[in-house]
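Propose amino acids for all 197 sites.
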């Protein structure tokens, strides 16, 4: 590719593609420079550092992921919304492993606050959970439960960590059933006493 064709957006998209091919940790400026047929130094006019590039990949991936999720949950509520959310999350994690890994990195809070993708993620996730009648601090606790469950399941599935003969899809469906029951029967927190009701 000609050097003149490089833009920050094209560079980030190429980095995201590379992440899916070789893993997020394999994304380096040298690897991208080779892909574009330029010297490493020429990329610094588009990104400040490898950390900056990886952060941009994370923001790109986060936007792609929430686009899928919000499309899936549109017009749904309760268990239907939860299942659609979970299925879209899992599909993205398995189909775009490098991009998905990028969504798990810690990002500077000022960038998170300024990101439309993160705002939409919070809006869609919290909106789905409010349908279960949850308020803070239970909303945050439920978000953390869902994220850790989905991430753990996807990570184990992607690495071949489920060795039992039970169908992985069947177990996933049961996981969603169990999460739905839990969310419907969430042990809400009494804000004044700090005790569970």
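Proposal:
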């Amino acid at each position: 590719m000609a050097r003149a064709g490089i833009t920050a957006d094209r560079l980030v998209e190429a980095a995201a593609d590379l992440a899916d091919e070789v893993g997020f940790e394999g994304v380096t400026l040298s690897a991208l420079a080779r892909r574009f047929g330029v010297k490493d130094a020429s990329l610094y006019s588009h990104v400040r550092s490898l950390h900056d590039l990886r952060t941009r990949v994370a923001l790109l991936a986060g936007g792609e992921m929430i686009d899928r999720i919000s499309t899936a949950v549109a017009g749904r509520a309760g268990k239907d919304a939860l299942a659609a959310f979970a299925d879209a999350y899992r599909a993205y994690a398995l189909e775009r492993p490098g991009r998905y890994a990028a969504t798990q990195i810690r990002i500077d809070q000022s960038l998170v606050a300024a990101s439309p993708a993160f705002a939409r993620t919070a809006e869609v996730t919290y909106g789905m959970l409010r349908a279960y009648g949850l308020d803070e601090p239970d909303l945050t606790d439920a978000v953390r439960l869902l994220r850790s469950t989905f991430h753990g399941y996807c990570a184990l599935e992607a690495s071949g960590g489920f060795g039992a003969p039970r169908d992985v899809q069947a177990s996933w469906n049961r996981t969603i059933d169990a999460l739905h029951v839990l969310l419907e029967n969430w042990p809400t927190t009494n804000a004044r006493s700090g005790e569970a009701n």
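The chain has nine helices and no strands. The chain has a mean pLDDT of 89.
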